[in-house]
Design a protein that fits this description.
- With about 150 residues, this protein is α+β, with helices and mostly antiparallel strands.
- It has a single domain, classed as Jelly Rolls (Sandwich), CATH 2.60.120.
- Helices cover about 25% and strands about 40% of the residues.
- It is built from 4 helices and 10 strands, in the order ββββαββαααββββ.
- It is elongated, with a radius of gyration of 18 Å.
């Protein structure tokens, strides 16, 4: 249950619950895409959240999260589009500074963003019919990615 609080002329809502969970996903890098929707939906059910928000966050600067149809063709299209925006085979100042060759992955991650919030109504994620929440790993090597799931609401 949410409670309304008053502080002078402004009113606001306080959330009754906030739950956080971390998961690890092994990734391959180079635009490796993982569907997080089942894990997120399961977490929402586990917490008993009826109405509120679900957050997905990937700590780090070489991965991102977004929504897209989790279908091989459109995933290939997205990765090809990101290759055109931030190609692997051009010089990056980051690579000159660090010598690790993953400048492209930092740029791609900045374009995609590390976090995403999805509304939850009546215990369900408000996603479109063909819309899934995905993790994209852009690094130039395999990683164990930490994913933070957080729900808040009532």
């Amino acid at each position: 249950m949410k409670r309304r609080a008053r502080d002078g002329p402004v009113s606001f809502w306080r959330f009754e619950m906030i739950h956080t969970k971390e998961i690890l996903i092994e990734t391959k890098g180079f635009c490796d895409v993982h569907d997080l929707t089942p894990m997120l939906a399961s977490f929402v059910r586990e917490t008993g959240l009826e109405n509120g928000q679900a957050l997905v966050h990937v700590p780090g600067s070489t991965a991102g999260v977004t929504t897209i149809e989790f279908e091989p063709g459109v995933l290939e299209d997205l990765c090809r589009a990101l290759e055109r925006l931030a190609p692997q085979n051009i010089p990056y100042a980051h690579d000159r500074a660090w010598g690790d060759g993953n400048g492209f992955s930092h740029v791609r991650a900045a374009l995609m963003k590390p976090s995403l919030v999805i509304p939850v109504v009546e215990g369900r994620l408000l996603l479109g019919t063909w819309q899934q929440v995905v993790l994209l790993d852009f690094d130039n090597r395999s990683r164990k990615r930490r994913i933070v799931l957080q729900v808040m609401g009532e």
